[in-house]
Specification:
The chain has a single domain (about 45-210), classed as Cathepsin D, subunit A, domain 1 (Beta Barrel), CATH 2.40.70. The protein is globular and about 50 Å long. Helices cover about 10% and strands about 35% of the residues. The termini are far apart. The chain is mainly beta.
């Protein structure tokens, strides 16, 4: 229980117990295994963001490949890095970067996954395309355990419908507005104790550092 608890952001730790939260409508049921949440904390299905300038397929585009210097979902040479330099996507200043991702018992070889860094998001999300490459079946799992840059974390589906509440307190399911975008949220930054640097001093740049990360030791060369 304690090891699972550590994977949750602080706002979702609550009473030190996990629960299955179910929200249902006539044609949609969402079951998300999360920690008991503090009042006001957003559950994974409640967060949404309008990213119309990052349409489906943008992360795999030649523009993003050139910006980040690596092909989307290609094999990653390292499972963890001390520092990652990203880039700023187009005029709206979307900060993108690439991190190696693996999934225990499903995809042990890390893949290069492009992320949008979103400090407004409490959670971290993968697209359906990334999930398929990592051998994750999102139709059976609403939350799953992945390793992002060697850091274990629960991640969620960015393509799943969002649960919104209107001004009258009525809840309804609507399509996700960030479908097709991998979102690196505060859950990862807090868990990894990462240092995020965004600078416009010499033009736009984004750097993510992991000063406290214990990098894996390389196996000794055979004789």
């Amino acid at each position: 229980m304690q090891s699972l608890l550590k994977l949750c952001p602080p706002a979702l730790r609550g009473s030190f117990a996990f629960s299955s939260r179910i929200a249902a409508s006539k044609d949609h049921i969402s079951m998300v295994a999360v920690c008991d949440a503090e009042p006001g904390a957003l559950l994974p299905e409640q967060y949404d963001a309008l990213l119309s300038d990052l349409p489906e397929g943008a992360l795999a585009s030649p523009t993003v490949t050139e910006l980040l210097g690596v092909e989307y979902l290609s094999p990653a040479p390292e499972s963890a890095l001390r520092q990652v330099k990203g880039g700023t996507y187009r005029m709206n200043g979307r900060n993108l970067l690439t991190l190696p991702v693996s999934v225990p018992r499903r995809c042990e070889t890390p893949l290069n996954v492009h992320f949008l860094v979103d400090t407004a998001s409490p959670h971290t999300y993968f697209t359906a395309t990334a999930q398929a490459a990592l051998n994750i079946d999102a139709s059976k799992l609403s939350a799953y355990h992945a390793k992002i840059n060697g850091v274990p974390l629960y991640v969620y589906d960015s393509d799943a419908d969002r649960l919104v509440t209107d001004a009258h307190g009525k809840q309804q399911w609507v399509p996700s507005h960030f479908s097709g975008v991998n979102v690196l949220g505060m859950s990862f930054l807090e868990r990894a104790r990462a240092l995020l640097e965004v600078s416009w001093v010499d033009g736009p740049s984004v750097t993510l550092k992991f000063p406290l990360l214990m990098l894996p030791t390389k196996a000794e060369e055979p004789d």
